[in-house]
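User: Structure with iron/sulfur cluster, tokens only please.
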Amino acid sequence: MTNILWLQGGACSGNTMSFLNAEEPSACDLITDFGMNILWHPSLGIELGNQLQQLLWDCIEGRIALDILVFEGSVINAPNGTGTWNRFAQRPMKDWLDDLSKVASFVVAVGDCATWGGIPAMAPNPSESTGLQFLKRQSGGFLGADYRSKAGLPVINIPGCPAHPDWISQILVAIATGRIGDIALDELNRPSTFFKSFTQTGCTRNVHFAYKASTSEFGQRRGCLYYDLGCRGPMTHSSCNRILWNRVSSKTRAGMPCLGCTEPEFPFHDLMPGTVFKTQTVMGVPKELPIGVNKKDYALLTIVAKDSTPKWAEEDIFTV
Ligand code: SF4
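Assistant:
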């Protein structure tokens, strides 16, 4: 039996909504097939009333083993570092987190707010929000750079706005089955298996990207979204086009540019529609090039690609 406690800080519940859509494995599979016991979850847990605080104290004082602490949302430190009172838990959430992190075997941060601070941590950050072990790309966050859970690991970061449901459920299974040691964490403590490649890996528009065939409209099934619509697929670490959403699609497959939501710097351009969905250029060259490509090579590639684009590269790939 693996005890899981899921708590929320400054959150919109988006990662909970995402988690409930997990398919491989599903949230139910975690309980029925992998022996997980969800001690409490703000949406799934029964109304515990005062018993919720008792449950949290039981974990802190060792009467209940806390195997996995999952945290969703930013850690709110306002006002003036005291932390905002949480009416369910009758104590600032940051204080519960401080105590529970000391007794948890594993701590998992789900979503951008818990990993990097997310949107709440954007300047001027009136909620004094931070992620569990990072503030944006800077190591530290609420628990500090040296924090290790009882199992000896840093906070396992599963970013995304929201995180992909199967990334969450698969990491929970890896922990519960004792296989988390097989999963390498990168320099941002993300499981490499999900975040080593780019969103572009597996995108159905790669052929359009290669031939520099662009689209300037949302929802189109032809053309790449990088050249005009600001797609961040070549600069964003995620497996959204390898492990599809609902097993069928992704943003870019549906004609929506990748917003780079798994990266610590998200949200880019303050999510202003006129800026975020527009490729920023200087003399026709995108300001942000795909990682690993320099300006000189990009210019050269552009000329060759434009000259050699076959007619079919401009067509809708799904129309017969
Ligand atoms: S749509 Fe985005 S992810 Fe897909 S090929 Fe173009 S730039 Fe890459």
